[in-house]
Structures are given as structure tokens and as C-alpha cells.
Amino acid sequence: xxxxxxxxxxxxxxxxxxxxxxxxxxxxxxxxxxxxxxxxxxxxxxxxxxxxxxxxxxxxxxxxxxxxxxxxxxxxxxxxxxxxxxxxxxxxxxxxxxxxxxxxxxxxxxxxxxxxxxxxxxxxxxxxxxxxxxxxxxxxxxxxxxxxxxxxxxxxxxxxxxxxxxxxxxxxxxxxxxxxxxxxxxxxxxxxxxxxxxxxxxxxxxxxxxxxxxxxxxxxxxxxxxxxxxxxxxxxxxxxxxxxxxxxxxxxxxxxxxxxxxxxxxxxxxxxxxxxxxxxxxxxxxxxxxxxxxxxxxxxxxxxxxxxxxxxxxxxxxxxxxxxxxxxxxxxxxxxxxxxxxxxxxxxxxxxxxxxxxxxxxxxxxxxxxxxxxxxxxxxxxxxxxxxxxxxxxxxxxxxxxxxxxxxxxxxxxxxxxxxxxxxxxxxxxxxxxxxxxxxxxxxxxxxx
Length: 449
Ligand SMILES: C[S@@+](CC[C@H](N)C(=O)[O-])C[C@H]1O[C@@H](n2cnc3c(N)ncnc32)[C@H](O)[C@@H]1O
What we know:
7-stranded mixed sheet; nucleus; transferase; 36% helix; Rossmann fold; 3 domains; 4-stranded antiparallel sheet; alpha/beta; binds S-adenosylmethionine; S-adenosyl-L-methionine; RG7MT1
């Protein structure tokens, strides 16, 4: 791999200006209270759509709920209509599950592909690259956690929306003691169980201590169920909660986003971290505005936005995301400032927010060997000097130009195809830290964030 490979990557990403999504408006988000009073836009508000929810939806829901039209009431009405979340209990009304079933069915039906099959995929390097990002992120925060603990003190983790257990090995390498795995897709969770059993079997046959972390599984909707009550020990203190490529599903509605954040924070001890990866809403919108339509993509990914990009709602901003053979289901825009404000309520303070390209830039030297081992980048030109069948040479123009500019015509660099990079550069990583709290007279926690 070449030191300068990031430039080749960034060339492909140069087009991705993600900064022109108008910052939305709310100053305070709270369950039941959306106060936008101090926000600039609010001073002259005449149209309810300016609070970020389409007028039609609100009017209709207000009528249904027979409430007035103050923002608080509007939001309450929207909440009641979309979803009913019982504090700490499963969803009350089975018919109001929103898109949960669509998402669960999609993931349940995804075929479990073998290594051989996966390595033939058009996005094999993209998947490996994302695995590298997750590994580096997990390692970075597990290291911080362990640095603050006594040697050999137990480390407990919740892999929220764990899917088929793609990160099980990362937890083994991170030498954790206990893992909670939760997911809405029961078939995926079963596959996760099988993977863990196989891994444990292999570990016991390996030389060395042979024991790996203990595990428990929680099938269910993390955006509608309070998970703590389902833990084997609800008083358990967690050090890390990881939610990879999944938190955005909770932005279907405010109560769901809050429920997911409560689940992330509930058992996290002060100093513990909540880490995750999501699509960057600014970039999703910026690309739509640039192409002048609501659907865009390339041969490996396609995004179709189902809302007005000039007035994206704060919750329920639905789009369909298709990624070659891996994802094809509705997702929801995560307006990051809103997430940060909501997270505060649960004692979670933003530590870091980083686009994948910036993450790569920061970690590329430290993660060099791992990147090689994980085959997270593709060698260009291909080692056999013949472009493999089915590969579009136009996807590597940036790499070709980069090599030419370096003056080393025989050089070889590590890169991603332009199509894969365009998909990968949509994503960002986030890190929140749980802060200490005091208590108010009613016994509710007060966080100083
Ligand atoms: C893209 S996959 C990521 C899986 C895993 N975190 C990884 O990085 O390999 C998204 C996962 O989120 C799960 N998911 C989506 N919405 C969920 C919800 N509301 N509650 C629990 N799991 C959910 C899906 O079933 C799926 O397994």
C-alpha cells in the first residue's frame, strides 16, 4: 500500500461537498417539546412546515388528534400518530410499527453468503474498507476504556443492531468480557448465534487460554423497546455501546430516536462511550441538490429521497438506500444537530463526528497493517496487468491520474473504485461519552452538558 493512497481516494471524493445543507432550525428538542423559539428562522414563522414537518402531515394529524396547532401540540400529535412507545415496555399498538417490519423482513431475507461469494461481489473492497473503519473505531475506544481501568477489569459491551454478528471477531480481538447482542431481525440474530458458537469452538481448540467473552442475545426493536429490562442483569454497567450502520433507522420518529438513545445510555457508566456509523444527512441532501433530482447514485449504490429536500423533516425523512446485494430498504435522515441535542438529554456528550474520509486520514498510518490484512483497498493497477472482466476502467481514472502525477509510471497504489468511494464517502462515524450526573428533587438525573 502506498503512503499517498488517500489522495487517490480523496480525488474520487472531491466532488462530495456536504456542507450546503441548510442547518435546520430547532434549538431544543425534547420528548413532547420542540422549542424553536430562539432559532433565527422561527422569528417570522408563518407556516408550520418551517418547523421541519410537512404541512399536510401535520394538518392531517392535528385533525385526527383534535389538538390545536402550537408546535408542542403538533409534535405530540405526530408522535401519537406514528408510534406508541411505552416507557420501558414493548410497543403498545402492534399496527403502528411503521417501517420496522419492512426493515426486519429485508434483513431476515438477506442470504448468508460464504467468503468465496462475498469476494466476488462488486463492493468487496467497500465492505472490507467499512470493516476496517469499524475495527479502528472499536479499537480506539476500547483502548481508552481499558486505559482507565485496572488491569484485567471486565469490559462489557452492547452491540446494538448487531445483525449477523459481523463484529463478533472484533470483540474477541478487543478482549472484552461480556457482549449483549440485540437486533430486530431474528434470522440475523440466529446467524449471529451460530457464528459465535463456531468462533467459541475454534477458540477452545486454539492454543492459549481459549476462552472468549460470554454473550447474551436480545431479539427486538431497539427503537421501541426498553432493552435494559431484558438484560440478564438489568443492573449491569456497560463500558461501550456500538451501533454500526443502523442508528438511522430510529429517526423514523422522535419517540423512536429517543428510545434508541435511552437504550444506548441506560446502562452505560460515566466515562463509557456510545459509538456508531450512519449516513451523513448533509451529504445525502447536497448530492440531491447537485443533481437536481431526488434520486441519484451509480452502479453500486442508489439513494431515492421521499421528501422535499428544501424542507427536510427532522424525523421521518425517508429515503430508500440500495447498496449492491447488501441493503435495499427505507432509512431515515439523521439531522446531526438534532441527534446531539437529543443525546444530551440522556447524558451523552458529543466527542467526535467524522466523515469516513476524515477518519481514514486520521487513522491511515496507525491502521496500515490492518488495512492490508483486511484487504480494505484494491491494488491499482491490478497485479495481473489485465483489468479483470466486468471492471469498468473509468472507475479507476483517479488512480491512473494519481500514479501519472507521482511520476512513477510503474507505481501501484491502494484505492477504491470511484463508484465504491462515492458510496463510502456518504458515511460518517460518531462518538458520544456518558457523563456523570446529579439528581433533582424528583429523582431524575441532571447532566451537566
Ligand atoms: C446494515 S445492518 C448492520 C449490522 C451490523 N451492525 C454490522 O455493522 O454489520 C443494520 C442492522 O440494523 C438492524 N436494525 C434496523 N432497525 C432496527 C431496530 N429498530 N432495532 C433493532 N435492530 C434494527 C437490522 O436488522 C440490521 O441487522
